[in-house]
Amino acid sequence: MPSRFDWLRRSQTGAELLATLQYLAAHPDLPADGGEIGPPPSALRGPCLRCWIYPRLAKKRHARYCPTCQSILDQAHKLGSVSRYSVVVWGFVNQLPRQLVRGGFHDSHVLDPYVHDENHFLLMLYQRELRPWLQELVIYNGDDLRGFIQVFPTTGAKDNGMGDLLCRIVQNEARFPMDRLRVRFFSDTHQIFTPGFYEREGVLTFEVAEFLNILEMASVFRSLLRPEEQENLYQVLKMGATSEAQFYWGRFVGSLGPEAKDMLNAWRLRQWSEPQINLLYELIEYVGFYQSH
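User: That's the sequence. What structure does it adopt?
Assistant: Structure tokens below.
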């Protein structure tokens, strides 16, 4: 019979993964379909077309799925917009975070966490909650928590679905020693299958404090530059170190207020590599506006 993790691996889309997490949270015991195995595939009959194990709904004419799969798919249809703005977190740690052991994280935006075993957990959360969630994780667990946290986006594609991505993520979990807490951030699903380039460029795996600092920078960047200014800056940075780029850079900086000028001068963005610049722009979607204290 499929395990709880097997049900997660059957998810094709982010909405299905979230629906499965909700289903598992509502059914602490494994999904029960009476223990009956569906008939072998034939021209007239067959098992559930999703899990290929359990019989299809008996009371529904032309049924395609078993009760569990049908329930998950029905719920997934309602979760598309939530999934679209969510990220998935897979944790491989020396011990479960205290919040999971003691009944959940403080922030209600964590979406139905799943504990795989004493060293692994999976959860989904809204993109903008990534930084508050990581901050809470560090504050409550400190240096006691060590391991590897991988963050990756959801997908609506049928090829390389969420189950495939999750399996590849699990394969990557033992790449680093468990001597500190590290975060690997995938801004796009294709990076999960080609991580080498991004790792060499230093824009994939970070110590948790370093990654929180980058998120803070993205928040400051988003707060001090209007969207059209962000786009203009990106176009100038793409020009490289040409004389034309120098002209447009000077004209662009001259149009900014003093705080934005100070930020660009302090960060020396023109000396950043293209992958570093792209990462900053990608993280804008994961942060809110900067709140000064």
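The two ends are 53 Å apart (CA to CA).
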